[in-house]
């Protein structure tokens, strides 16, 4: 990685671009390509070693994005995929072999579990789900055939923080690869590779894009594990178009200012929610009373805008009155854009090793870049409609 000793904001500003190679242009342009021509037979015959040889294998634009992801995650290598699910399934597949065993945190993103249950299981790969709070207790679940430990911290539904270094330390002793879904932090507030994790995956769709108009996945890793990941990646034909890579680079340049704003506004809204009589509990690891707060402080430099809360049991009609009247909060999948979102959620359906039974309706909220005073006002009116 270039600029290794610079601060994160500086690295993210200066990585993945080379104006001197592009007529002085600040941003690496969109190179659309399938065919890439070679000037003579000797060059064609030497293409195995060429960085640019065919569109599926990358363009200057996608390579620039990979360099910028390395700078963001503090990684030696990166790969980009057409969605977060494509990135995570590439990583899972890279460690699949007959009879293999995977350990996956019980708060993992739903489609991660589905890939294990529907795809990997068909090929004889067994997955054990573990309590996200397991820490060094993971050791008791490791078998001779365990190939991968998958983490997600905090989980994007229930927001438990994992003791990442404790798990990676055990994994290393047993020669087991570790991977983490790092989407929540955007790679900005948490650098898993510095804590011993082998592979950090993100839905670049969320904070890297930041504008709710792009599907993207990122895989950041050490040089040691890169070849293995790239082998699977190439065999499946995973690649990203240069227009999308360009959009991702454009979003990434402002990740620092956006994340700091999400952090401050998210906490303001979370603190307001804490005081509402309808709210039983707020799941936000940056709150001192959150059970994950000590681990949060150990690993994270800030919080994103995504968190949850539990409302006292509520009639469905009342919930609809509250939600249907929102105009600033949108209802829809995903998060990480500049705008706020709210959805009711039911995390219990994605669990098997632990129970999620918080005693009321779980809600997930993404606090965007609006003024938090307006968001709080809208939530206040929403609770008024709920009571009406
Ligand atoms: C959205 C999401 C993904 C999947 O990303 P897509 O780009 O939608 O495929 C993976 N992990 C987490 C935690 C997510 O929120």
From TrEMBL:
Q: Which InterPro entries match?
A: Cys/Met-Metab_PyrdxlP-dep_enz, Cys_b_lyase_bac, Cys_met_metab_PP, PyrdxlP-dep_Trfase, PyrdxlP-dep_Trfase_major, PyrdxlP-dep_Trfase_small
Q: Which GO terms describe its biological process?
A: L-cysteine catabolic process to pyruvate; transsulfuration
CDD domains under this entry? CGS_like
Give all N6-(pyridoxal phosphate)lysine modified positions: 206
Recorded catalytic activity of this chain's protein: an S-substituted L-cysteine + H2O = a thiol + pyruvate + NH4(+); L,L-cystathionine + H2O = L-homocysteine + pyruvate + NH4(+)
What are the GO MF terms of this UniProt record? cysteine-S-conjugate beta-lyase activity; pyridoxal phosphate binding
- Which domain of life does the protein's organism represent? Bacteria
In what pathway does it function?
Amino-acid biosynthesis; L-methionine biosynthesis via de novo pathway; L-homocysteine from L-cystathionine: step 1/1
User: DNA damage among the record's keywords?
Assistant: no
Signal sequence interval, chain numbering: none
Cofactor(s) needed for function: pyridoxal 5'-phosphate
- Keywords carried by this UniProt record: Lyase, Plasmid, Pyridoxal phosphate
Family that this chain belongs to: Belongs to the trans-sulfuration enzymes family.
**This protein is called what?**
Cystathionine beta-lyase
Q: Which organism is it from?
A: Paracoccus yeei
Identify the coding gene. Answer: metC
């Amino acid at each position: 990685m270039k600029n290794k000793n610079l601060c994160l904001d500086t690295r993210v500003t200066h990585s993945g671009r080379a104006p001197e190679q592009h007529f002085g242009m600040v941003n690496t342009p969109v190179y659309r390509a399938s065919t890439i021509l070679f000037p003579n037979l000797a060059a064609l015959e030497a293409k195995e070693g060429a960085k640019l040889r065919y569109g599926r294998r990358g363009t200057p634009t996608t390579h620039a994005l990979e360099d910028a992801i390395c700078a963001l995650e503090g990684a030696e290598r990166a790969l980009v995929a057409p969605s977060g699910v494509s990135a995570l399934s590439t990583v899972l597949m890279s460690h699949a072999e007959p009879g293999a065993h995977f350990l996956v945190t019980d708060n993992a993103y739903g489609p991660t579990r589905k890939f294990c249950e529907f795809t990997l299981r068909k090929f004889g790969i067994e997955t054990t789900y573990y309590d996200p709070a397991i820490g060094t207790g993971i050791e008791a679940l490791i078998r001779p055939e365990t190939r991968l430990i998958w983490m997600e911290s905090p989980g994007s539904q229930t927001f438990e923080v994992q003791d990442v270094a404790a798990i990676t330390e055990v994994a290393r002793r047993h020669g087991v690869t570790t991977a983490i879904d790092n989407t929540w932090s955007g790679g900005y507030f948490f650098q898993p590779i510095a804590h011993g994790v082998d592979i950090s995956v993100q839905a670049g769709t969320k904070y890297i894009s930041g504008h709710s108009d792009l599907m993207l996945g990122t895989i950041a890793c050490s040089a040691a594990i890169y070849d293995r990941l790239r082998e699977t990646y190439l065999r499946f034909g995973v690649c990203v178009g240069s227009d999308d890579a360009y959009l991702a680079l454009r979003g990434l340049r402002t990740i620092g200012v956006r994340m700091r704003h999400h952090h401050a506004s998210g906490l303001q809204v979370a603190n307001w929610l804490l005081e509402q009589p309808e709210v039983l509990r707020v799941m936000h690891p940056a709150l001192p009373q959150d059970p994950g707060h000590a681990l949060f402080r150990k690993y994270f430099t800030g919080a994103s805008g995504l968190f949850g809360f539990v409302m006292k049991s509520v009639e469905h009609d009342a919930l609809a009155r509250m939600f249907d009247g929102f105009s600033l909060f949108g209802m829809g999948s995903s998060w990480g854009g500049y705008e706020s979102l709210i959805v009711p959620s039911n995390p219990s359906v994605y669990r098997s090793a632990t129970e999620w039974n918080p005693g009321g309706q779980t809600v997930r909220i993404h606090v965007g870049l609006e003024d938090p005073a307006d968001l709080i006002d809208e939530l206040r009116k929403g609770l008024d409609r709920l009571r009406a």
